[in-house]
Amino acid sequence: xxxxxxxxxxxxxxxxxxxxLALAKRLSKQPRTRIVLAPPSPYLGLLAKGNKTKxxxxxxxxxxxxxxxxxxxxxxxxxxxxxxxxxxxxHSERRARxxxxxxxxxxxxxxxxxxxxxxxxxxEKERDAGAAYLLLLRQQLASALEPLSQAERMKVVIAYEPVxxxxxTATDSPQDVHEMALYIRKILSDFLPGTANARIPVLYxxxxxxxxxxxxxxxxxxxxxxxxxxxxxxxxxxxxxxxLV
Length: 245
Ligand code: PGA
Prior knowledge:
With 245 residues, the chain is of the alpha/beta class. The protein has helices at 14-27, 41-48, 76-80, 92-95, 101-113, 132-145, 150-153, 174-189, 213-217, 234-243; strands at residues 2-6, 34-38, 56-59, 86-89, 117-122, 157-160, 202-205, 224-227.
């Protein structure tokens, strides 16, 4: 199981970042557990540089340019040079700030060109009765995957995060999560040959907490979770990871 800890902008001190890393190191010794930390960029640089532990790192975003005269941007090359393995792309909090499908597709291409695995976030704002949300998910996946070669697509991790379930206000039912994971794998099969879609990790995110992680994981076909607010509370994060074993 892959647990991606999305620290968002919650962590604002070096002390807190280092204590969460120490916890992640201890928890990553559990069998069948891979912990990926996604700190805000100053702490990403601090913690990931020279990392020799089992803990892996993700950036929370990257530039849709290849660097140069782009004030405020962080290029894929700069991240790859730090030994970072993953980058979260298309998070709903970035899409809400105006990030377009085209920009996400460009970021995907920059990421894979520098050996980073994109954790592509997709998710609907609401589950409408007319099921338009299913088409939206297909569009979010298709626009990000189409420009990539088949070999590059095999580097992608999908994180299904219904926007309405993010932030600790509402939780999806295990049954619905299970069905959505199947639906996502079915769409992936349009972009990959044979049974390769089964090898793409599909994660779930949206108010994942110690109390619901087990029912969500059970028999769901998921490969892990993208955890926000519960990943920056030491007790919650530790209980959540231990609940999976
Ligand atoms: P949450 O955030 O766990 O706080 O709902 C998840 C995410 O946005 O990645």
